[in-house]
Amino acid sequence: YQDPPPGSPPDAAPRTQLMCFEAVTGNLVWARSWHDRGERSGEQQQQANSANLLRAYQAAHPDKPNTPAEIMLFGDRVSTAMSIIGGVVYTLEGEARPKQLRNNVRGNYGMTFAVETNRLYAWEAGAGETGGKRLWNRGGDLDPETGEEVPVKFVAAPVAHGKRLIVPVRESGALWLYALEPRENPDWPTDGEAQWEVPTVWKTFLCDEPPAGVSPWGRVGVALDGTDVYVAGGAGVAFAVDAVTGIIRWGTRYRRSATGARTGARG
């Protein structure tokens, strides 16, 4: 990660970079940054409130990740998720925004720098001239009424089934599974470079989030076996989905041995 720019508020989150290193020597091959697309509301007041809450949280929880850098490195498992498929690196990038949490049963305040929405990015892997080149990025589907992207949060790096990418997404308080199919579009103006479109082939509703919410840092588990996609929602539910059609084969709830109250985590 990179430290925030000079003049940033004390609670500003560090900016991330994708970096490629030579495995034998450890030498840096290339590093790329993504461009921030996030927006904040009530910026100055939010920063002042967040700074006060952060200091209180740090004093009450000295043994837990609580600075922006520590949270990014040791708490947030979504922003560090990535996969490499067919010479392409896929990452999840978004604006980390301070957010005040509700009082818990003990009356304490917590602090999170979790990403509320993000985008799926594709980068050229390898060490050649095109290494680290950004190929495309996308967020949610377009709203048919407004023509704008629906705000979503990708909650795991994608897995591949043929030419498709299968990735879990939180959208409108629910967990969905998307199948995307990136492809170059020869009909678009190119200016010498390939242009990509990444349509949604299918999307399947899995479940609503529990009333108490889920961990803002929790990563959803997703694995592929043949044409079966297995999804562990992280909140006591698991699914098997047909990778070709998106049809749910089965879903089940399971009892967990630890609760959020015991572990200090939700979801």
TrEMBL record:
Q: What is this protein called?
A: Pyrrolo-quinoline quinone
Q: Which organism is it from?
A: marine sediment metagenome
